[in-house]
## 1
Amino acid sequence: MGEIILVGSGWNSFLFRAEINSLVSYDKIIHPRLVTISSDSNINILSKAALLDDILFKAEIIDDCNISEKDISLLIHKWAVNNLPRGSFAIRTRKIGEEIVPLSSSSIERGAGELIVSRYNNVDLETPEHEIVVILAGLDGQVFHKNESDTLKTVVIWGLRRKISNKNEFERRNPIERPFFKPVSLDARLARLMISLSHKPGWCPKIIIDPFCGTGGIAIEAIIQGIDILASDLDPIMVEGTQKNLVWSKGKGKYTVKKCSIDNIVELWGGHEDCAFVFDPPYGRNSWKSDNGLDIFLKALKAARSINPNGTICTMLPTIPEFMLEEKSSNYLVMGKKWEEIEALINSTGWIISLKYAIKVHRSLARLILVCHPSH
Ligand SMILES: C[S@@+](CC[C@H](N)C(=O)[O-])C[C@H]1O[C@@H](n2cnc3c(N)ncnc32)[C@H](O)[C@@H]1O
């Protein structure tokens, strides 16, 4: 019958898998950037994903790394007899993984194409009705965050490409393209990823609350996917700027943007079931070390708990790149404090951490992505 395989973008395979797990949850990892899902019932949700490159249906998996181009072509042909619908087709081969698989993409495309072509299936490389995608996935040993799932293996897969609706055009929404830009502006892909991580399989927030909206990086990505946003910021210039950026984004979701300190956020928004909190709290190069930043962060967690006790949080804290070595994480500094202390403080506000993962910003700064769920 074949599998449904999701192909992750090369940016970060751990976060790709975490994102898929939040949106639909996956079945098996067959390579750090390839996971299977068991049903296509929630497939539309995947158009939200920031780190998903491709969806392949009726896919076949070969993990024999000594296979030749000729054997692959023969197997693709055998598979196509039962799985390729009538109509024009193209074969697209992609190589992924850190180690390049020493197989020729063009030989596979030519070899399989010649075998498949028939009066029912003609080749059309420009606008084919069907695309057979072949992935040659080389070894991928992530340097950071090595864990059991990041196994080293070479696999060859192929399947029928399902077009991803609204394939995200993050380039077009690059912060510097927006009418209102500041250096704090969150990158579109990262903002989109944070929103995805605030989902749970079977639960999509209808509203996102960002109490530190800045230039609206998170707000834009929410309304573009039709999720309503309640955004606020202490700084009136940011409030005005977010409004401008939201008009520019032409998103479908509804939005309200207010000037408000985190101190008054509960009074401002009241209770909201079905909302998730997604934010990056204030931290400057110097200020992130101060207790003030931590205070503000903890206030946001408490407010989130009272606005929706059943909600979720996705946030990001400044840390140092050494945090990326997971096994030593308890010793590292996050917002100027030892991680253990920060974790205890988060727990004291009624949240538990369900995911933590550091990404590098530059040589001396990393950001720690956190996903929190209610502790009871
Ligand atoms: C890191 S920036 C957020 C950037 C935003 N995600 C973006 O894409 O532009 C943090 C924001 O928090 C705001 N802020 C600082 N202290 C605050 C407070 N006590 N209450 C509410 N907002 C505050 C700042 O004005 C700043 O815009």
## 2
Amino acid sequence: MGLTDFLLQTTPQALPRWYGRLAGRLLAGVYEEIADRIVREEDGNGRVLDFGTGPGELPVVLARHPGLRIDAVDVSDNMLMAAEDRARETGATRVRFGLVEGMALPFDGQRYDWVVSTLVLHELKERAADWLSLLFSRLRPGGTCLLLDLHRSLAVQEDVLLAALREEGLLPSWLPRGLLSKGWRALHSSLPTLDSVDALLGESRFGLAAGKRLLPLSVGSIEVQDALLWVEAKAPDVTIGPFS
Ligand SMILES: C[S@@+](CC[C@H](N)C(=O)[O-])C[C@H]1O[C@@H](n2cnc3c(N)ncnc32)[C@H](O)[C@@H]1O
């Protein structure tokens, strides 16, 4: 059982709300950068899938661009409920939400210009390459998959990070300290690196990364260098077959 699954089972309502506040505060700038990148590439009009939307912070930012049509999916009902609430509160009414069941994506047959997935890769574990291949199958020819995750070599110690989060009021009082510490260590060891993501794409239908970079992340008063890994991979621009 992954950390998110475990926490969702123990705190089904509180976790999505807390996590949404955390991601919304720490990643707001990154979500905006993602939205700007898509809008620039698609001349303002594109269909986007957010895979593993969690409490729906990214779709809310994407939905500020009226030309983007957004589907947001997650494997967790509780996360989707929080995401739907967040979309309602912010007026992001054009976002469609759907549940991932087993290895099946909702919105059958829908193809996307962009598939985006933020902070999910590390949760996909041994099935990650299969998931990437599935995401590939939902891209239009020439479409782009953008994967963003925390980067394993992010140079920050647990106590420094927890202190910075506490300073920002982003640590929930209901989460015991020991669990946080255990969670941080489990999370850290599951995170991708530049090399591991290359290996993963190689196993999937993408084959190669089209671009990779590392970004800093500000947590209150500290800036953590190389904290985020941004990877883009492309579906080939040609449709192959059917052959007669
Ligand atoms: C750490 S949260 C990231 C949420 C959000 N994308 C963000 O930027 O904050 C990981 C999310 O991925 C979801 N997830 C994990 N495995 C999944 C899968 N196989 N299919 C869809 N969602 C998945 C979890 O339920 C959780 O909501």
